[in-house]
Amino acid sequence: MVVYLKKVSLYIDEELWTKFKEVVLKKHGTLRKLSSEVESLLQESLIDERIGKVFEKIGLDLRIPRSPEEVKRDRPKLRGPPSETLIREMRGRRIVKGIP
Fold first, then answer.
1. DSSP characters over the chain
2. Of 7, 22, 74, 88, which is the most exposed, with the fewest CB atoms less than 10 Å away?
3. How much is the pLDDT for 14?
4. pLDDT band for position 95 (50/70/90)?
5. Cα 90 from Cα 39, distance rounded (Å)
């Protein structure tokens, strides 16, 4: 597979860039990996888009992000008694039977 590289110029906060270079230097022992680290960060930032395309391809409807209101609205309706009632009954039976 042939990879074509593109040279770009960016304006980045100087302090941020200095800290980034320090991290790359600590990680690799050289600054020759700056480009690959920037490329890696760019790929990570696009991963949500890739995941969305894969979900779309297999027919999953996934909207990111969902609002708290949507989550509450779309929760399944609970059936049966609340779990605390069931647990209380189970503990009561355990005490009656003498099980610790």
1. -------------HHHHHHHHHHHHHHHSSSTTHHHHHHHHHHHHTHHHHHHHHHHHTT----SSPPHHHHHHHSPPP-SS-HHHHHHHHHHHHHHHT--
2. 7
3. 96
4. confident
5. 56
Give the pLDDT confidence score for residue 63 in this predicted structure.
64
Rounded-to-integer distance, Cα 68 and Cα 18, Å: 38
For residue 29, what pLDDT is reported?
93
**Which of the four pLDDT bands, split at 50, 70 and 90, describes residue 79?**
confident
